[in-house]
Amino acid sequence: MSSTAHLLRRLGAAPLLLTLTASALHAQLSPARMRTTQQSTTSLSVAQRAGVDSVFQHLDRTDAPGCAVGIAEQGRLVYTRGYGMADLQHRLAIGPQSVFHVASVSKQFTALAVALLAEEGKLSLDDDVRKYIPELPLYGSPITVRQLMHHTSGLRDQWNLLRYAGWRFPTDLITERDVMQIVTRQQALNFRPGDEYVYSNTGFTLLAVIVQRTSGQSLAQYAQARFFGPLGMHDTHFHDDYSMIVPGRTAAYEPRSGGGWKISIPTFDTYGATSLFSTTSDLLLWMATFDTAPEGAVELLRAAQTSGVLNDGTPTNYGYGLTLTPWRGIRAIGHGGSDAGYRAYVERYPDFGVAVAVLCNAANAGPNNLARGAAAVVLGDRLPRPMVEARAPEHLPSSAAREAWVGTYRDTVAQSIIRVRSVGDSVLANGGRLQFGSDTNATISGPEGSSWMSLQPSGATTTLRMHPRGLRQRVFVRQAAPLPSVTSYVGSFFSAELDVRYQLVEREGRLVMSHPKLGENALEPAGRDAFSWGNGTTLLFQRDRRGRVAGFTVNDARVRGVSFVRSP
Description:
Number of strands: 32
Strand content: 25-35%
Shape: globular
Number of helices: 13
Strand order of the largest sheet: 19-18-17-16-24-23-22-21-20
CATH class of the largest domain: Alpha Beta
CATH architecture of the largest domain: 3-Layer(aba) Sandwich
Distance between the termini: 68 Å
CATH superfamily of the largest domain: DD-peptidase/beta-lactamase superfamily
């Protein structure tokens, strides 16, 4: 009997992804189902408990939101605890079974639902997505279901598109219909499917639609029948109705300018990319399935933890809604999530049988660092020490060498902007200080770790090449000085892809973008016919044969080339 047939036979009478030996782990979890206290379940040593508590010590207070942590070893819950407040208005503390919106942690459940439907013969991962979503435009190259799962589809990101269309986060209600309407208006992709890896929430909303159209059940119903119910994940569901009351649900917050907190809760009636509600202990039950899978599901779960590949064979380090990037030399499989004031991070270290889930209701919590801090305590000496790079003494470039770096540079692919300034003896790139190895080579630290940068003058063109670890080389070209006047850019511009109109006006010599819901935003010159907006958006203007501004495109890390046309 084939593995697929074996799995389907197991799924026949009782619709389970896994029958799992959930009893052992679930028995450990059941006594800990407390919602309003910070009481903990534990079998860690006294020193380990103290170590984990020290990681979260700054959150252990009664006047601020915080996080819940859950830790499992060898499929057995060893520690759960809450730190901080679940609801500041009602003075309720976070407990081990507080319920959180876990944002993009949702993606692995969506991807596994689709993969299970493929095992059942309802679809193929290599099918053209338009087989199930024919309203998606033709883009020249077909997009496969698998490419949606691996973020290699080229589809523009739904959240960025909605923001540019005037939706206000997190207050505006966003439904699946809203997402589908704006996605199906897009007339181009960021890149040819399979050529690049660019994170796209759009793909996972479409996967949820595919689940409904192939199974006859909504993703919420399908996941409840196949995953959450059979595994005893009683506090987990896909939240498909923003008005639904959820016992034990936390509120979420972000810091208020000037001190204190303000409420920051997403209002979504769209899911697949997001909207899973869960607890730390339920997520540990889920993670245990990857280590204790019955025979018929081994291949399915192995595929979920296998990297996708680009058209040229380059691995993406992303599986079925799971990141596969090593940490300090050990295998680490998990995912993070971020929506409004909610933050989440779950990760397994399969070679050691350890799993950690950290769920937070504070936008500045940083759950990835907290989770790995807790993991480091539990792993102890089993975790390799951080590698310390041997660095040559920092080079001190001359004043002329520093000035040679100064300028505005634009990425030739994603159109992102780097502004390099010389301040005293330092050179800053978008505010980060460069550390020089020579007059033309430097490193800079960022969210993805340190990047190596090289300055390469070539005739009239100067390029800045950036080599982030594990990512493509990025080539930034120095831009010509902007035009002395912004008057030529003033006008009314409409985007059929976003169904939105922007007014560009001049305010005291500066170009300002105006929209009724987005307000007024000053645009910063970024070279001839280029402006930057906010943190990471680039507007590139086009001119007609007479040299008049005819329109522009909007570009950022997840959206490229959204077109605006000037109105007469």
